[in-house]
Amino acid sequence: QKDGWGVKIQYPNDLWTVSARVNEFGDALEPVLGFLPRPGTRQYELYTAYQPRPSGGLFAGVRQFFFELDPFLVTDLHGQTESFRMFMAPLNFRSQAGDHYEANYAPEYERLTKPFEIAPGVVIPTGSYQFHRFRVQVESSDARPISAGATAWFGGFYDGHLTQLQGFVNWTEGSGHLQLALTLENDYGYLPAGNFIFRLWQLKAVYAFNPDLLLSTFLQYDSESRDLGLNARLRWTIRPGRDLFVVWNRGWKHPADARGAELLVSDADQVILKLRWTFTR
Q: Would you list the DSSP string of 128-159?
């Protein structure tokens, strides 16, 4: 089947937000643009959020609550369930100061028709799996010069357990010209087939020389590939709708015969020049 289609309905509002979507992707569908991660499936999602704003009393310190329910179902083209996830937010609110607090519960179901190698040497066998995931999240307001946050996912994962710890720190320089953001993630998996640890480090920096000239850099390293990547982009807005971009991509990697803690070596360099020009009548 080479066809694909989708329907989406949204009702965005301050008190209630509701959206529903249905997509079908043929098993032989080849998208001209983009990437299709799960061909040969039908996907259903119904998102509902009740978002009251307390007027005082016991919850005077709360700006707004967000009670969410988000079921997501994936079946094959014959209607057999492949995945199911019910994301719930029984506690989710933003304080009057702009800080965010959230706790979530997400039961999941996955049916694997082929063995899945989630990490080198760690293979999850075929079969049906039901497990329960939990999340706790705390984030300070980004209106402050320094903001920080932490997220912890934990609970079952296929036939084992997975704990994911994420944290970030953002700093905005007093004049507002410079912004720095550091993000760290550590994933600890414990499965009958073996254990694994993934680490991801990201550093972002943005400097605005003026409203029309912006330099942004993004540096990333992960423990799985052990590669380091840099993306730097200079954007000059000549006038609204007319922009000049200069992009530099550089990669470093460990040599194939590397032993121990050898230094990374340059792997690739790429410079891209892009001009976007909007013509109006």
A: EEEEEEEEEEEE--TTSSEEEEEEEEEEEETT
Say if CB 140 and CB 147 are below 8 A apart: yes
**Rounded Cα distance, 107 and 177, in Å:** 43
Q: What's the mean pLDDT in 124-143?
A: 96
**What 3 state SS string does 176-225 have?**
CCEEEEEEEEEEEEEECCEEEEEEEEEEEEEEEEECCEEEEEEEEEECCC
157: nearest Cα among 98, 110, 226: 110
Which pairs count as long-range contacts for 172-177, CB under 8 Å and 24+ apart, including other chains?
A: 172/145, 172/146, 173/145, 174/145, 176/208, 177/207, 177/208, 177/209
Q: pLDDT tens across 200-216, in order?
A: 999 999 999 999 999 99
Beta 4-11 vs 41-50: how paired, if at all? unpaired
3-state class of 43 per DSSP?
strand
DSSP β-bridge partners for residue 235:
214, 245
pLDDT of residue 36: 81
Indicate if the pLDDT at residue 168 is higher than 90: yes
Q: What pLDDT is recorded for position 256?
A: 66
Q: Which residues make Cβ contacts (< 8 Å) with residue 52, sequence separation at least 6?
A: 15, 64, 65
State the pLDDT at residue 185.
Answer: 97
HSE on the CB side for 44, CA within 13 Å?
Answer: 12
- Per-residue confidence (pLDDT) for residue 259, from 0 to 100: 59
- CA dist 248 and 235 (Å) reads 12
Q: DSSP character for 38?
A: S
Highest-confidence range of 129-138, 170-179, 217-226, by mean pLDDT? 129-138
For the cut 60, the answer to whether the pLDDT of residue 260 exceeds it is: no
Torsion of CA 190, 193, 195, 199, to 10 degrees: -100
- What is the rounded distance in angstroms from the CA atom of residue 173 to the CA atom of residue 51? 33
